[in-house]
Write a structure and sequence with these properties.
Strand content: 25-35%
Number of helices: 6
Radius of gyration: 18 Å
Structural class: alpha+beta
Shape: globular
Largest sheet: 5 strands, antiparallel
Number of strands: 9
Number of domains: 2
Order of helices and strands: EEHHEEEHEEHEHEH
Helix content: 25-40%
Length: 194
Amino acid sequence: MRVERIAKDKVRIFVSYDDLDERGIDRDEIWQNGKKVQELFWDMMETAYTEVGFEIAGPIAVEAFTMPTEGVVVIVTRVPSLPGQSKPDDEETDMDLDTEFSSFVFRFQDFEDVVRAAHALEEYSLDGALYEYQGDYYLFFDEDQLKDEYYDSIWSILHEYGDYANVTVPVLEEYGRSIMPHAAIELLVEHFPL
């Protein structure tokens, strides 16, 4: 299990399939709200508090999605209470595990792999942004572009040519070099034919 703080009120937690196996949780069980999954969730929250100081206070939103070979990514966000609403007790924390997808970044060591991935992704009409950071190339995609029916195909293509990166977009914007801030897939296909 690995925890990364990605904003003041948001953490990303990587849970490997080995972590799930050790707890006796099948891959399909992660989407159910059984006792083992609840125990895993509270262990994740304890790890998040210990490692990055992320504490649950009030309502939270939980997003989770699977990566074909690595495991499960869980994103936990503290949600501010709306005026006039009563705050739930900590025991009543909203644990809405669903399959909504978060923004994500993929790393490529070779520019040729970025071009190949772009050509393979052309049919999905993704926008994306391309950065260069510490000698590697990074493609960033916003969550709004990911349609459920194409999700597995997109992940498979990206994993074929690159690796899921735990670098956040603010880091890329601050320390990296923006090569194509918008329409990266379209521009790569147009300017770099195979």
